[in-house]
Design brief:
13 helices; 2 domains; about 35% helix; about 350 residues; seven-stranded parallel beta sheet; 13 strands; globular
């Protein structure tokens, strides 16, 4: 864990040196959407709020200023020209306020346990996001189906071979899942470059393609196009929580998830309807065999269910249609999850 913390701090310091000149403070007088949330808020949580708010409100988004926030968010000021820090000692004309304070228009909390302990839809939960770069690119083109199952991501042992996920959520961690998956007879372990070069060869159609980022990843701007070529994506939990952005990237283009955390989506995914579910190590071989043996008719039906689900629950979030001021947001801080 110390290794991971040091690595993150070093990365943020380098980002800050590179991007701090893009940081800006709000000096206008038009109404703004104002964010003032706890210091423990993760960068991905801020970005989720930014993207969801901007899809509904056209006003500038202004964040309560602090040095910590500047350090964490400097990179995104270059990417998102509508975000600002509140200028110290200045007054703002606030159209809507997002805060933990009871007087806010939307009272933010991080009680995501309300989602993963029930199957029912919770209307006051902000939908989680794909990888942020997916919101900065144009519409994804679709490929024809050329891959049976795709598995892609960071599988660094130092990060994912821990007891955090098993101890706190009673689920297999990413490292153990990966070690089992790559034993399957259908696996092809390749790099992202190899997949891009050989996609049209048809040699992946009945295979589980496993790609470690450490071996060379598909560029972010091209990822979802190549993802659309797969019938299924094999999902594994993240580092601090089960939910990982790759499940949403897949569902956004109708790729069927195979996962062990269906209840972390809102509402829960349904086995054999819009996902396939595994739990134990012994389930993994069986679920891979099942996915690769399904008829095209069944896969087409499940893919439609997946896309319908994503569009219904993970598309635009209409804040003003949810009159209750509570807004539950998924924050990746482990203290907010358990």
């Amino acid at each position: 864990m110390i290794y991971i913390i040091k690595k993150k701090i070093s990365k943020k310091l380098e980002e800050f040196k590179q991007y701090y000149s893009y940081v800006r403070f709000y000096e206008g007088d038009q109404p703004v959407v104002y964010l003032n949330v706890a210091h423990r808020t993760k960068v991905r949580t801020y970005l989720n709020l930014f993207f969801r708010i901007k899809a509904v409100y056209k006003e500038p988004i202004v964040i309560q200023f602090s040095v910590v926030r500047m350090l964490l968010l400097a990179k995104w000021f270059k990417q998102l020209d509508y975000i600002y820090f509140a200028k110290p000692f200045s007054k703002l004309n606030k159209l809507k306020t997002f805060s933990h304070h009871k007087s806010a228009d939307f009272v933010v909390n991080y009680k995501y346990k309300k989602v993963y302990t029930t199957s029912d839809y919770q209307k006051n939960v902000l939908p989680y996001i794909m990888h942020p770069f997916n919101y900065l690119v144009t519409q994804t083109d679709f490929s024809s189906k050329k891959i049976g199952i795709i598995l892609s991501g960071n599988f660094e042992e130092k990060i994912y071979n821990t007891t955090l996920i098993p101890d706190n959520f009673k689920l297999l961690n990413r490292w153990d899942i990966y070690q089992e998956v790559i034993q399957h007879k259908s696996v092809l372990s390749i790099s992202g470059k190899e997949l891009m070069e050989d996609l049209d060869s048809k040699k992946f159609s009945d295979k589980l393609v496993a790609m470690r980022w450490q071996s060379g990843a598909i560029p972010n701007q091209k990822w979802r196009y190549y993802l659309t070529a797969a019938d299924f994506i094999f999902c594994a939990p993240g580092m601090t929580m089960p939910m990982c952005h790759n499940v949403l990237e897949a569902m956004s283009v109708g790729v069927i998830p195979i996962l062990n955390y269906p209840h972390w989506l809102n509402p829960s995914l349904q086995d054999d309807f819009n996902c396939l579910v595994y739990q134990s190590i012994s389930d993994i071989k069986l679920i891979v065999d099942k996915a690769l043996s399904l008829s095209q008719e069944l896969k087409n039906e499940m893919a439609k269910n997946v896309l319908d689900y994503y569009n219904a629950y993970y598309g635009e979030y209409l804040f003003d249609e949810n009159k209750n001021t509570e807004l539950i947001v998924l924050n990746e801080n482990i203290k907010d999850l358990i």
